[in-house]
């Protein structure tokens, strides 16, 4: 993934160190930050979709400032990577919404280490990266990328970018009114029905992530050989069935909240190959 030296987002709220904030600056890479959180939640059967409800948005002029102790070089590199990826999602989705005659209001991404608070509840390594519609923020523990690579076997910059794009896709669903309707249905449904709705929400977010990847490649020339394979491998590694097997459990479809590995990979592929959000209507699909 070509991301170094490109524009970063100003919609970053950095809670990793008190007083440290990031604006929309340029970049260099490292690989840390995304998977410990999601792994535990999924392996334990915790549905992170309900954690959809956040604090102040970041702002800046492209510079990093540390009023307290300095962030490590690795911390800075990871933050810059996240910032550029978030900026890419903002530009892509702004363009897609504009083509449809609408406006896109970007989400804020909260970087944290260990634990933090959100309107959806406490955020920690046990909750996984999640989007909170209450404050339109994505919450991301910077230990997650390491877990993604080292424990889940999903390596590469674009595997990490896929995770960011997936959470931003929940914000896109919120902007389109899909997320609110889905959560209303879930609130009135049985546990099994609620899980089934959650699966459709998550698979659509995977599909929207593929749409983003399609447009990012065309708009920025950022996609390199092997990047899409990295994203699909990440989607495959975090399927409910794969995670349950990895935890020593027999996969139980009625408990799935995100979809199987095959489904997650397939819906990402559909979005990427079409580049159209109309290809992502998981709610009308008879077979997922």
Describe this structure in words.
It is a single chain. This protein is an alpha/beta fold and 288 residues long. It is 47% helix and 10% strand. The protein has helices at residues 36-43, 73-99, 144-150, 157-176, 178-187, 191-220, 227-237, 240-246, 261-274; strands at residues 12-14, 20-22, 64-66, 108-112, 115-118, 121-124, 130-132, 137-141. The protein has a four-stranded mixed beta sheet. Residues 19-69 have low confidence and may be disordered.
Keywords:
47% helix, four-stranded mixed β-sheet, alpha/beta, globular, 8 strands, 288 residues
In a few lines, what is going on in this structure?
The protein has 288 residues and is of the alpha/beta class. It has helices at residues 36-43, 73-99, 144-150, 157-176, 178-187, 191-220, 227-237, 240-246, 261-274, and strands at residues 12-14, 20-22, 64-66, 108-112, 115-118, 121-124, 130-132, 137-141. The chain is globular.
Strand portion, in percent? 5-15%
Q: Provide the spatial order of strands within the biggest beta sheet.
A: 1-4-8-7
Specify the structural class.
Answer: alpha/beta
| Low-confidence blocks of residues | 19-69
Number of helices: 9
Shape: globular
* H/E element order: EEHEHEEEEEHHHHHHH
Number of strands: 8
Helix content: 40-55%
- Average pLDDT, rounded to a whole number, is 81
Our measurement of the CA-to-CA distance between the termini, rounded to an integer number of angstroms, reads: 29 Å
Radius of gyration: 17 Å
> How many strands, which pairing sense, and closed or not: the largest β-sheet?
4 strands, mixed
């Amino acid at each position: 993934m070509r991301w170094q030296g490109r524009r970063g987002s100003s919609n970053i709220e950095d809670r990793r160190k008190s007083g440290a904030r990031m604006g929309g600056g340029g970049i260099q890479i490292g690989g840390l930050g995304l998977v410990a959180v999601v792994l535990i939640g999924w392996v334990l059967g915790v549905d992170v979709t309900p954690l959809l409800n956040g604090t102040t948005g970041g702002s800046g002029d492209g510079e990093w400032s540390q009023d307290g102790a300095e962030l490590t070089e690795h911390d800075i590199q990871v933050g810059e990577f996240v910032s550029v990826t978030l900026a890419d999602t903002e530009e892509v989705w702004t363009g897609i919404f504009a083509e449809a005659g609408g406006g896109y209001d970007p989400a804020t991404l909260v970087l944290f280490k260990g634990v933090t608070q959100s309107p959806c509840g406490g955020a920690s390594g046990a909750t996984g990266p999640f989007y909170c519609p209450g404050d339109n923020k994505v919450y991301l523990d910077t230990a997650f990328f390491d877990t993604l690579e080292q424990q889940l076997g999903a390596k590469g910059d674009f595997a990490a970018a896929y995770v960011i794009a997936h959470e931003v896709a929940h914000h896109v669903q919120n902007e389109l009114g899909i997320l609110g309707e889905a959560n209303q249905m879930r609130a009135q449904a049985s546990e099994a029905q609620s899980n089934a709705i959650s699966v459709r929400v998550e698979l659509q977010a995977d599909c929207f992530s593929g749409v983003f990847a399609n447009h990012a490649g065309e708009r920025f020339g950022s996609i390199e050989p092997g990047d899409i394979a990295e994203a699909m491998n990440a989607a495959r590694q975090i399927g409910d069935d794969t995670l349950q097997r990895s935890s020593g459990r027999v996969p139980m479809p009625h408990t799935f909240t995100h979809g199987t590995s095959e489904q997650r990979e397939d819906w990402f592929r559909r979005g990427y190959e079409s580049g159209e959000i109309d290809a992502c209507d998981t709610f009308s699909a008879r077979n997922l």
